[in-house]
């Protein structure tokens, strides 16, 4: 196991294009770090810099307290699993897993023991004599992971390893990777553009955009308290609702004016800080997760604390365990999760219950979180 420290790291290509702009990340021994963001955000470049496949323009990368900027990949004691399986088609699974051991001249008897251990861990013992062309996508990905495991490195690097798999297999392989981490306790750095993978796998998540880490922290903290509109919209499926409206005084507190086309109402918000009150009279953006907007059947706990607002339903999307209801509020489409037995109907009115206990406020000017 090994800790990882990325300190004020920049990457600029020879043509002057900046890719990373002052990245700072620290994880402890055995943690699972997710680098998540859209295409071109710099996450794969950062992973390649950790691996030693890309040079560092400025800053420092430390593995277990040792600066590795100038170390070659083979001297960093890491193993990498790529998006493409990169298996040798003419070799059996056994030969693919032991290939790196052969290069390092590990004795044959020890190689056999390592292959047996790795194949048992990944449940691919019955595949050892097959070649990659005889395997499914999920089996090939396990073999690629097995080749990395055979190294017994201090750190694993995964570069979007599940992107080529179908939806069902992705879910299965996510569970396999998480179980593998629990068994081995080895530090993992994992790149993905899929926020579901990020939320389900990581101990720590770094949300990236344009070469900058927008937010770094535990998955639930990022989900509940996103630092800006980008993070709030990127993490969560369906994404957080954004409702822009005027912040007004409401008794001793504050509220936001809402217009659904059916009703006008001030939604009371649980904020009392001077920072929030300084925005009274100005437009703000209210962030609410879809599960915080429901109906009487879908409400949990004391629904006496929930605020009722009547809306006109635009579209419904049944998902099985719940139904997504889309309606217009302040000119924006808002999605809520209601109980399927409620049977909402398109173009009909419905009463939704708003839970503002987890509400987030953003400044529309700089898109940063106010509260």
Itemize the secondary structure elements and their pairings.
Layout: E1 4-12, E2 18-27, E3 32-37, H1 43-51, E4 58-63, E5 66-67, E6 78-81, H2 93-103, H3 108-122, H4 137-149, E7 155-159, H5 167-184, E8 187-192, H6 195-201, E9 204-209, E10 212-217, H7 219-224, H8 229-234, E11 241-250, E12 253-259, E13 264-269, H9 274-277, E14 283-288, E15 293-294, E16 307-318, E17 323-329, E18 332-338, E19 349-354, E20 360-362
Parallel strand pairs: 3-8, 3-9, 6-7, 7-8
Antiparallel strand pairs: 1-2, 1-4, 4-5, 9-10, 11-12, 11-14, 12-13, 14-20, 15-19, 16-17, 16-19, 17-18
Helix pairs in contact: 2-3, 2-4, 3-4
Structure characterization notes:
One of its GO terms (molecular function) is ATP hydrolysis activity. InterPro entries: AAA+_ATPase, ABC_transporter-like_ATP-bd, ABC_transporter-like_CS, ABC_transpr_MalK-like, ABC_transpr_MalK/UgpC-like, Mo/tungstate-bd_C_term_dom, NA-bd_OB-fold, OB_MalK-like. Pfam families: ABC_tran (PF00005), OB_MalK (PF17912). By secondary structure, the protein is an alpha+beta fold. It folds into two domains: 231 residues, P-loop containing nucleotide triphosphate hydrolases (Rossmann fold), CATH 3.40.50; 122 residues, Nucleic acid-binding proteins (OB fold (Dihydrolipoamide Acetyltransferase, E2P)). The protein has nine helices and 20 strands. The protein has a six-stranded mixed β-sheet with strand order 6-7-8-3-9-10, with helices on both faces. Strands 13-12-11-14-20 form a five-stranded antiparallel β-sheet. Helix 2 packs across helix 3. The longest helix is centred in the middle third of the chain and has 18 residues. It starts with a strand and ends in a 9-residue tail after the last strand. 36% of the residues are buried. The mean pLDDT is 91.
């Amino acid at each position: 196991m090994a800790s990882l420290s990325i300190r004020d790291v920049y990457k600029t290509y020879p043509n002057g294009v900046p890719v990373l702009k002052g990245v700072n990340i620290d994880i402890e021994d055995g943690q699972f770090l997710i680098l998540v963001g859209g295409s071109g955000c710099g996450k794969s470049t950062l992973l390649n810099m950790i691996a030693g496949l890309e040079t560092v323009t400025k800053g420092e990368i430390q593995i277990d307290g040792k600066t590795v900027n100038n170390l070659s990949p083979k001297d960093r004691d890491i193993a990498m699993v790529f998006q493409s399986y990169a298996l040798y088609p003419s070799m059996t699974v056994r030969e693919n897993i032991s290939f790196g051991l052969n290069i390092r001249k590990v004795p044959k008897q020890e190689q056999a023991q390592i292959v047996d251990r790795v194949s048992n861990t990944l449940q691919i013992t019955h595949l050892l004599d097959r070649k990659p062309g005889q395997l499914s996508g999920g089996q090939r990905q396990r073999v690629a992971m097995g080749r990395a495991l055979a190294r017994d490195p201090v750190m694993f690097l995964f570069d979007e390893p599940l992107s080529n798999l179908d939806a069902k297999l992705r879910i299965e392989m996510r569970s396999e990777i998480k179980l593998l981490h629990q068994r081995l306790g080895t530090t993992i750095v994992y790149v993905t553009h899929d926020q579901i993978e990020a939320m389900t796998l990581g101990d720590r998540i770094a949300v990236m955009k344009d070469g900058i880490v927008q937010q770094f922290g535990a998955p639930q903290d990022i989900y509940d308290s996103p630092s800006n509109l980008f993070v709030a919209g990127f993490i969560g499926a369906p994404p957080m609702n954004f409702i822009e409206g005027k912040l007004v005084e409401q008794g001793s507190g504050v509220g936001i004016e809402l217009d659904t086309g059916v009703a006008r109402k001030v939604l009371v918000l649980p904020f009392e800080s001077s920072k929030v009150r300084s925005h009274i009279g100005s437009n703000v953006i209210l962030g609410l997760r879809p599960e915080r907007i429901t109906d009487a059947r879908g409400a949990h706990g004391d629904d006496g604390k929930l605020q009722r607002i009547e809306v006109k339903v635009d579209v419904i999307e049944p998902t099985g365990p719940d139904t997504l209801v889309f309606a217009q509020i302040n000119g924006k489409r808002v999605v809520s999760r209601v109980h399927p037995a409620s049977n909402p109907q398109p173009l009909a009115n419905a009463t939704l219950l708003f839970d503002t206990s987890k509400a987030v406020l953003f400044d529309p000017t700089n898109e940063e979180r106010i509260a």
